[in-house]
Amino acid sequence: MTKNTNMLTDNPVLHYDEKTSYTLSPPKKLCWFLLSALLALLGFLGTMASALSLYTPDYSKAIVFLAAIIAFGLAILFQRIPHGGWGNVGVVLLTLCILIFAGGHTTAGIQFLVNSVYHTTQHTEIDYYTVDEAYVETSCVTLLFSCAAILLAFFFVYFTIRRPLFLIPTLISFLIIEPGLYCGIALTPMAAAPLLAYWCGMSALHLTLRRTTSPKVPVRNISSICGICTAMLVLVVYTLVVFTGWISDYTRSEADRLRKKSISNSLAAFDFNNLAESIRSFGSSVGLYRDTEISRLGKKSKLEFEDEDELILTFDTLPENMIYLKGFTGTVYEDNSWLASAEFSDATNAEMVSDIISSYDCAPQNYAFLFQQSLLADTNLISCTITSAGTNETDNSRCYQPYISYSEEASFQDDVDWSVADASSYTWMISEGSSVLATLNENPIVDFTFSVPENSDTVVEKFLRALGVDDSEVLLQTRFPSSQAALSPESITGKVIPAMLMESLVYWDYANDAYTEQPDVDELQEVYDALPTSILEKANPSTAEEQVELLCEIRNWLAEETKYTTSPGKTPDTRDFVSFFVLENQKGYCVHYASAGTLLARYLGIPARYCEGFLITDDQYDEAEETEDGYTLSLTDRQSHAWTEIYIDGYGWIPFEMTPGYYNTEAAAMKSLFSDGETAQEESETEELEEEQAESADSEETTQPAQTSETDNPDEADQTEISDPDATTTAVTSTNDKAEKEQESFVFPTWLKWTISIILILAALVGIYVLLHKLILKRRQRVMQDLRDPKRAIMTSYHYLLRLLRFCGIPYHGSLLLDYQKQVASYLEEQELPMQAVLEVISITLAFDMGNHVPSPQRQAHAAVELHRLSKAIYGTRKLPMRILMKIMMLY
């Protein structure tokens, strides 16, 4: 002990009487601890209340509430007892182990939760995930919510009291409630109040801690007071604002509501699997641009209208019949989308069609107009100028074409796409005649020999070579008699014969090959198998009469199996759009019926395409305003529509209506023109079905046309059961086949999956710990030698020394610090351990505490070195288990 005494009395920093006793004031932690605990309670309570108000599956509220109370109480208790951090780690690991080893229930709980959100947002009873019947929703979700409550309790307590941070708890709480907000679920204002108060309070607490240079304990008191006062102030103000809005019945303006709804709908439809399209959709909602190359299906759930002008039409004479304005043509169906792609390189004559359209302005879109003008002398010609009503000059709007029309301004790139020099305004000449379909019946396809002119110019020769014509005479199949083709009106002279040649020699075979191609979607086979035998027997019709008759049967079958509604809900990402519509949900509007009708028509051998645009009905002409230029009619989104387009050999593309309640179109009337008296009863039944469907549509929507673009927040809609037993049997058979294939393939044993999962989790935890261990040790050494903040360096060295000595079994209990120094020095001398760290650190701490004396940089660095030397010596004298414990406690 003489050695120790001499070393103490020779210390040049301290000058004291050996009989005088000094000790550091015990830290007064109770005040800041209680305030921090209250702040943590606000965060935990706000997150749980917000989550439970957004997500409402079946669960036991009593069990979850009890688990939350117990977990929060234990988390607070572990912060007050010695080595409480081990309790935190133990509870968290235990909870994670429960979730892992109850993997089936955990997975089922998550699936039940997703299904609940899907039911709420889509107003449907259809499940997004099919959960094994062995799992009960209440027990699985209760387990999931209880474990989540335990983890959240310890998370908020730790990052609010022990390691007060702003970003991490704020981010986690936001990520918990964001999926519900993202899906459009309304958050209860008072449930969010504690969470908002917590965010603001933690921000104030964190800023106070970072900006003050006061000693540690006073800093925690001040920061905790600032944090809780800020939180309470925000809580009071938020409550007053909500209460005032409720009393005054405040509502947003209509313009704000519509804009917010548009942005919300586009965000709710955001799909990371189709990121570019989702970004374009969001841009369109804020008035930036639109997409003309793709039509995504099933991403939104309800027809909602903004009633803003989309197009302005100017007629020189008002039409007598309804008009379809085609703005989008879908040719390829994949990934629940229609693509405006006309590239069918494997189809018959594909290369020839592409070359002729792009080189000779001989487009199939013009063929119906040329046919009608040549064969129907009484056809009216109506000028229609289409003007975009959009205010954004950079808006990539779709251009629209009426059927049976022609324009000198239009330039066709391929079988689908066309453009004009000025997309904001362009003019079409529409050939309107009431007897087109009758003329088709009166003019069947006949063989016609075309003689090539002897003195053909270079352009004609190139055109004929492009068609593959080498002989002087060509056999055609056409509805044009030679005399009628030669007597075509002057306005189309020189266009009829090239169009006739292309349609008969090239395009006919191309259309029947390309537009009967089936998409590579396995789920669609179940739809095809569900078709009744009476329809399947009529596949591959050879005449226009048979085509129309078969299409009407398809249309009637869809009307029987499904229900028209403007709020069918979203299509789950795990389902095919058409299959989900026909076999499961059985609810939809024009987009659903047009898509299903197009694919069914192709499957049965009828060339078909999907179209979107506007439908102008007869009664809407009454709203036209007479001007100096003629008659002006404005179209809003309420006139937008979707339909199926079919190809009639020898004539061209015509619209065919598949949506119930919209059958009174010119194309639908073909059946009556081609039918005889034996089908009168069938026609009567069809009309009755159409009237019933129309009444159903009118009860949901005050205006007749449906909208092609889909939006969120659907109204409640009833689910319809599948009425076709053949479809159910086929679905079960298909499921059994899939199950047998899965059994034949190799499956990892369950125990092996769990073993690999546990090993990976443990490896990840060990890796994270090793990284944190290195970071913490480096940070501590850097702080103890930080010359810019010696006060912080002294306190860090002092507390680290006390932790080392506590590990050695000589903890400090608040006795005289000099007596404790002597006791420690004696112990270290007996153990043959270096004691210089104890003498240096305690001497520096006393000098700073009593006299505010800052040590020299050399002495500060020397103390840090000696501390490391002491910890290394202690580590070297311990056995392996204690060494591991020192590593875990971050002592070495």
Shape: elongated
Give the distance, in angstroms, between the N- and C-terminal Cα atoms.
29 Å
Which range best describes the helical content: under 10%, 10-25%, 25-40%, 40-55%, 55-70% or over 70%? Answer: 40-55%
**Percentage of residues in DSSP E strands:** 5-15%
Which strands sit side by side, in order, in the main sheet? 8-11-6-2-18-17
Structural class: alpha+beta
Largest sheet, if any? 6 strands, antiparallel
Please count the helical segments: 31
**Poorly predicted tracts of residues:** 1-28, 270-290, 392-396, 665-690, 696-747
Overall pLDDT score:
76
Total strands: 20
Computed CA radius of gyration, to the nearest angstrom: 40 Å
Describe this structure in words.
54% of the residues lie in helices and 11% in strands. The strands form six sheets. The protein has a six-stranded antiparallel sheet. Helix 3 packs parallel to helix 6, helix 10 runs antiparallel to helix 11 and helix 20 packs across helix 22. The longest helix has 35 residues. The protein is elongated. The N terminus is likely disordered.
Give the key terms.
892 residues; alpha+beta; 54% helix; 11% strand; disordered N terminus
